Amino acid sequence: EELVGAISKRYSLDKKKIILGNGSDELISILAQTFLGYNDEAIYTEFGFLQFPQAISIAGAMGVVANDVNHTASVDNILSKITKKTKLIFIANPNNPTGTFISKNEIIRLQESIPKNILLVYDAAYSEFVVNDDYIDGSELAEKHENVIMLRTFSKLHGLASLRLGWGYASETIIENLMKVRGPFSVNAAAIMAGVAALEDLEFQKKSVKHNLKWMSWLEKELKLLNLDFQSSITNFLLIKFPVEYKYSAENAESFLASKGILVRGMKVYGLSNYLRVSIGTEEENIKFIDELKTFFKK
Which domains does the chain have, with CATH numbers? Predict the structure, then answer.
């Protein structure tokens, strides 16, 4: 109750429409379990969060992929996949692992174009990093429409990933149904206390966003000097493309960086085998990353 109150106060939201989860991934799972059954379909995007197809499959439903355009979710492609069997549409905005986003007008067009019996699951895990006026975090859509739920997490900006804490915002009807499916032992007391403290620490939030913007710009310039292509991002990570040549491949770069104590994310599981996802770190970490990358390409 204390954390729900803190979320409500921080974002000016209705307490009755908030649900907590053991990470937003728990909420993704119970959404699939609540609203999907055998013979149902759920749509997710080509390079969307891997939890989406996994949750759909576990619920016994059929996952349907909507192809991206330039590593960005396509509203037209999502709409083209809708059938009478479609019950859920999962979309992460901004998207992980590409760092791309769909504009406010496109998200509104998506919501207005789908049948009212289809629930739009809007995962806004990285929304706190966004400083773009053309972005919408989904809360106002969930406020106005019965068929939208916005998901958020404390794992990204607040850095509480290991405590597993997420939340959702939707109509009271959706929340009531999710509460029936959610297990009795979901969020722990330590996570709740940390979540309240994190929400109240506005100074840290502003500092983190400012730090991210500064070093994202720096990292982009350094990557250009190395002639590496990357996907422009509004999050706290970059999707970097590596040469096809095996010596300088993403796989070899990942192994080399790991040997230097730098952990980055290989993208083979997403079908992006020549890419690495790299998160913004501290000043020291960012500089070391670029220095070691320069060493790698001199081999």
Answer: 2-200 (3.40.640.10), 203-298 (3.90.1150.10)
